[in-house]
Amino acid sequence: MKKIILITAIALFSVFAFAAETNSTPQQIEAGYTAAIEGRTADILKVLALTDADKTVKVHDAIIAQYRALKAWHDENDAKLKASAKDTNVVAQIRATLKTIHDGFVTKLSESLAPSQVEQVKDKMTYNKVKVTYDAYCEIIPTLTDAQKAHILETLKTAREEAMDGGSADEKSAIFKKYKGRIANYLSKEGVDETKARKEWGAKQKDKAAAK
């Protein structure tokens, strides 16, 4: 009986939450979005720890403007991309407009930030996936050569450039997943058995957990 009541309560909560969301006014939706991107931008600025007030304002405004530009682009083009998925020429033309937005943003950041700081912005906009993923490869496959590590890092940074423009966290993750597939192909050609390495690493983690 208690289980039925709990399930009913959860269902009702979901209904009410959905109703509240769908009944939001355009002003409320905009206010929520503004608060969200201001929060993301504040997190980035915290990492940068800028001491120049003018630079801080310029970087803040550039990041906010980029988030809005990306949202507008995805709102306008995502459906077009889906409908034209089989036409590579059309897809390329549409995505070229996104590259223009991307390049303009990086140029804007570079006016106020050092290259290493621009890297920090890129990392924060992509949830630090380059470092997290790269470190995982190095841990799971300790036999990687310096050349292989360099190739993996470069590939992940390429993924980051594309993921920066993703319209959602899921899209960013999907982009990194695509590039991890390319890394898998590269390692296979290099004679590295990634699947075996991951199994061995997983077994070691189980042994460590059991020892604790």
Instruction: Please give the share of residues in helix.
Output: over 70%
Helices, by number, come to: 9
Query: Which geometry do the CA atoms define?
Result: globular
Q: Helices and strands: which structural class?
A: mainly alpha
Number of strands: 0
Task: Bin the strand percentage.
Answer: under 5%
Major beta-sheet overview: none
Low-confidence stretches: 1-19
Q: What's the mean pLDDT score?
A: 91
Can you put this structure into words, describing what you see?
By secondary structure, the chain is mainly α. It has two domains: 10-117; 126-212, no CATH class. The chain contains nine helices and no strands. Residues 1-19 have low confidence and may be disordered.
Sequence-ordered SSE layout with sheet pairings:
Layout: H1 2-22, H2 26-48, H3 53-83, H4 88-110, H5 115-125, H6 129-140, H7 146-163, H8 169-189, H9 194-211
What's the quick description here?
The protein has 212 residues and is mostly helical. The protein has helices spanning 2-22, 26-48, 53-83, 88-110, 115-125, 129-140, 146-163, 169-189, 194-211.
Primary descriptors:
0% strand, single chain, 9 helices, mainly alpha, 212 residues, globular, 84% helix, 2 domains
